């Protein structure tokens, strides 16, 4: 089991769309954690190149994350929102559906295996998991509920990534409509207790709102074997985080869940676009992702933080501009100190 071999109980979150880079993945792995390279939004060819580049930077094992495909959304459910965006003066792209090169990426990872293949937005079929097991890869599935966890365990996933509602970026929910889980969103510690209380016989990786050694210690105390962190690494020099997002991470503003940018619930720093369009954005991923792509690209290029998705977890303000290795070292040191302090109080 990979988690038994890493020196630091830290997993790099696969932050697709910019922050994830071979350099960041390698840096976390070299520092004793486990790096996961984002495969979302990439073609199989581009992902292959990033895997090769990561291997040039580190001899440590690392993983790749894939987005499980969903189903198309009827166009009539999308048009009113597109009309709203056009009326606001936004440049709108084609709201198309695709499966994120799913089959080609599975073929790639079967032919050129990595240590771990993790999944977001769904659980692969038992046959797909068996195929990856057959080439020596572990399969990790991101879950947000005990129902999803049971599906993943039944399909023979090796590890569950328990994602609490505090997490930045997209919610990984896959057994309900994208909005349903928000009627009673589950926080990380509650989710960890529920999963452990159900006695799932697989290791858990805790994800959501962890940015300090104390937070890491809390996740381990709740039953996690390791914790997956994203926002705390977004200001690292190795990250591909855009300038406009880097700047936004230095300002104390609240976060919120929204479908406005992609058609799927995701947590980001509140800005004008999020506030104006969250109430009307439909559940239509990836159609809305493609529709808003031109306006988000223009906002990044112009430095307009009010019109771009600023994905970040609830503890993002604790992220500092430090090398990834130093972030890992500080987290481990703080975790040890917190666990020792807690032991003295018991």
Automatic annotation (TrEMBL):
What cofactor requirement does the entry state? FMN
The processes (GO biological process) annotated in the record are:
response to toxic substance
GO terms, molecular function: dioxygenase activity; nitronate monooxygenase activity
List the catalytic activities from the record: 3 propionate 3-nitronate + 3 O2 + H2O = 3 3-oxopropanoate + 2 nitrate + nitrite + H2O2 + 3 H(+)
Q: Which key words tag this protein in UniProt?
A: Detoxification, Dioxygenase, Flavoprotein, FMN, Monooxygenase, Oxidoreductase
From what superkingdom does this record's organism come?
A: Bacteria
Q: Which family does it belong to?
A: Belongs to the nitronate monooxygenase family. NMO class I subfamily.
Q: State the protein's name.
A: Propionate 3-nitronate monooxygenase
Source organism per entry reads Rhodococcus wratislaviensis NBRC 100605
- Taxonomic classification: Bacteria, Bacillati, Actinomycetota, Actinomycetes, Mycobacteriales
């Amino acid at each position: 089991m990979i988690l038994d071999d890493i020196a630091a109980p830290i997993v790099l979150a696969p932050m697709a769309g910019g922050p994830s880079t071979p350099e960041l993945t390698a840096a976390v792995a070299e520092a004793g954690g486990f790096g996961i390279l984002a495969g979302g939004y990439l073609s199989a060819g581009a992902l292959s190149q990033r895997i090769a580049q990561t291997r040039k930077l580190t001899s440590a094992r690392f993983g790749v994350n894939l987005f499980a495909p969903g189903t198309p959304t009827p166009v009539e459910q999308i048009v009113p929102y597109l009309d709203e965006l056009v009326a606001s003066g936004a440049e709108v792209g084609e709201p198309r559906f695709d499966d994120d090169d799913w089959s080609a990426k599975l073929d790639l990872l079967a032919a050129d295996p990595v240590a771990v293949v993790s999944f977001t937005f769904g659980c692969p079929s038992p046959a797909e998991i068996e195929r990856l097991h057959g080439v020596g890869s572990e399969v990790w599935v991101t879950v947000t509920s005990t129902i999803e966890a049971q599906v993943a365990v039944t399909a023979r996933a090796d590890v569950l990534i328990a994602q609490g509602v505090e997490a930045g970026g997209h919610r990984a929910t896959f057994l309900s409509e994208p909005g349903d889980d928000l009627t009673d969103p589950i926080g990380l510690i509650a989710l960890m207790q529920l999963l452990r209380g159900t006695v799932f016989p697989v290791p858990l990786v805790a994800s959501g709102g962890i940015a300090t050694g104390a937070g890491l210690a809390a996740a381990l105390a709740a039953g996690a074997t390791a914790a997956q962190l994203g926002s705390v690494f977004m200001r690292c020099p190795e990250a591909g985080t855009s300038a406009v997002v880097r700047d936004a991470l230095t300002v104390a503003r609240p976060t919120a869940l929204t479908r406005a940018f992609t058609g799927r619930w995701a947590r980001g720093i509140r800005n004008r676009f999020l506030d104006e369009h969250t109430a009307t954005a439909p559940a239509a991923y990836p159609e809305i992702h493609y529709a808003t792509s031109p306006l988000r690209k223009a906002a990044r290029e112009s430095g307009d933080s009010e019109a771009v998705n600023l994905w970040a977890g609830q503890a993002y303000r604790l992220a500092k501009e430090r090398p990834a290795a130093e972030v890992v070292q500080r987290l481990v040191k703080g975790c040890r100190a917190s666990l020792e302090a807690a032991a003295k109080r018991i």
